[in-house]
Design brief:
There is one protein chain. By secondary structure, the chain is of the alpha/beta class. It has 14 helices and 17 strands. The protein has a seven-stranded mixed β-sheet, sandwiched between helices. Helix 7 links the parallel strand 7 and strand 8. Helix 2 packs antiparallel against helix 10, helix 3 packs across helix 10 and helix 11 packs parallel to helix 14. The two termini are 35 Å apart. The N terminus is likely disordered. It is an enzyme of class 2 (transferase).
Length: 415
């Protein structure tokens, strides 16, 4: 599990009770009760989050920060209240360090485009791990091409584990940024980000963490981690799609130019020159996803309402149960077998294309993800087109795992 969390002695977790909070799970798909195992792609939304969106549009809909009327005041208060909740959730020192984005992808692009364009010079190096999501590779490649810098991959071994000796050896004074996933979306590997951040800093580099897959599993403390930037998406934390969070250290955010121009992000505009707003608004041009932000606040309240250590232990128990069954299944090969993993089981079935497996599982009501999971370089390294990925969340049960393997038995017979 996470470096910071011990799951020993965690109290029992009532996944059945939690499940009842997620109305979408109560449906038939292709004539079978839905088993949703695509949580690494997106998590489902509890009633409280859905209701927050409905309530906002029914009662409070108004633009934020600019209206001089009751609805605008109410919307603004709820909007900024959500920012404070998120700041507390990740233990940011100040809520102005929480910047709303469209998602993890935009957070990574924002830092690459603003910090990167301002600070990278010819010959500089940006390190990312070899199993990053494309959204933590391509934005760096774009700015590196512009600035004459290079993007280099930290080696990952056959189990999906970062080679920390190789990483340490790569660090020199030309490395200006290390941008690394908290957890691999392809395999669930939990990366030793505390060490990754410390080593980056010792070498004089900054460190950005892609928390898309980390944020939902345990408490993240950005101050304890000492990361320079941390990004995540609301939709992987039981919140809405199209919204994300960029956390950054104040001194870095202050020095970065704005990402986009428009309303909200300015202090004063004239044709003689424009001045920019203070943090966090400098990075929030245009009308934001107000309903989404308020709903993310509700998602944070929801996550705070259950025992997160017990939930993490439950997810780990599901993973162990599933991987035991996988090892006993002829022709099934697990891909990504790192010692420290979230509840993600990536696998291949001998003689079957992952896509066909996914389709046949779907016909039996079991939703998984197939393909390269936007992590093509690591799939290329392993010489495979992709995997089938079953990813578990707090509302999954041991019965869900049983259903997956019953369905896989039929897939094997069929293929
Ligand atoms: C590790 C990782 N990084 C980045 C992303 C991109 O997230 P989004 O599409 O929400 O911007 C994902 C989404 O799957 C992810 O798993």
């Amino acid at each position: 599990m996470s470096e910071q969390v011990s799951l020993k002695g965690a109290p029992a977790f009532d996944a059945e009770r939690i499940r009842a909070d997620f109305p979408i799970l109560d449906q038939q798909v292709n004539g079978h009760p839905l088993v949703y195992l695509d949580n690494a792609a997106t998590t489902q939304k509890p009633e409280a989050v859905i209701q927050a969106i409905v309530d906002y549009y029914r009662h409070d809909n108004s633009n934020v920060h600019r209206g001089a009327h009751a609805l605008a005041e109410r919307a603004t208060e709820k909007f900024e209240n959500a920012r404070s909740k998120v700041a507390a959730f990740i233990n940011a020192a100040e809520s102005r360090q929480v910047i709303w984005t469209k998602g993890t992808t935009e957070g990574l692009n924002l830092v690459a485009a603003t910090w990167g364009r301002t600070n990278l010079k010819p010959g500089d190096r940006v390190l990312v791990s070899g199993m990053e999501h494309h959204s933590n590779i391509v934005p760096w490649q774009m700015v590196a091409a512009e600035k004459g810098a290079t993007v280099e991959a930290i080696p990952v071994d056959a189990t999906g584990t970062i080679d920390m000796d190789a990483y340490a050896a790569m660090l020199d004074e030309r490395v200006k940024m290390v941008s690394c996933g908290h957890v691999s979306n392809a395999f669930g590997t939990i990366n030793p980000i505390q060490d990754i951040i410390r080593l980056a800093h010792e070498a004089g580099a900054l460190c950005m963490i892609d928390g898309a897959q980390g944020i939902s599993h345990w408490a993240v403390d950005v101050q304890a981690l000492d990361c320079d930037f941390y990004v995540f998406s609301a939709h992987k934390l039981f919140g809405p799609t199209g919204l994300g969070v960029l956390y950054g250290k104040v001194e870095l955010l202050e020095c970065m130019p704005p990402y986009q121009g428009g309303g909200e992000m300015i202090e004063s505009v004239s044709f003689a020159g424009t001045t920019y707003n203070q943090l966090p608004y400098k990075f929030e041009a245009g009308t934001p996803d107000i309903a989404g932000v308020i709903a993310l606040g509700a998602a944070v309240d929801y996550v705070n309402s259950y025992d997160r250590v017990a939930a993490a232990a439950h997810e780990q128990a599901l993973l162990a149960y599933a991987e035991d069954k996988a090892r006993a299944t002829p022709g099934l090969k697990l891909v990504g077998t790192a010692a420290n993993k979230t509840a993600v089981m990536s696998f291949l079935l001998e003689g079957a294309h992952p896509h066909d497996v996914g389709m046949l599982l779907d016909q039996q009501g079991v939703a998984v993800r197939t393909g390269n999971h936007c992590a093509q370089p690591i799939m290329d390294q392993y010489g495979i087109p992709g995997t089938v990925r079953a990813s578990f969340s707090i509302y999954n049960t041991f019965a869900d795992v049983d259903r997956l393997f019953e369905a896989l038995t039929k897939v094997r017979q069929f293929l």
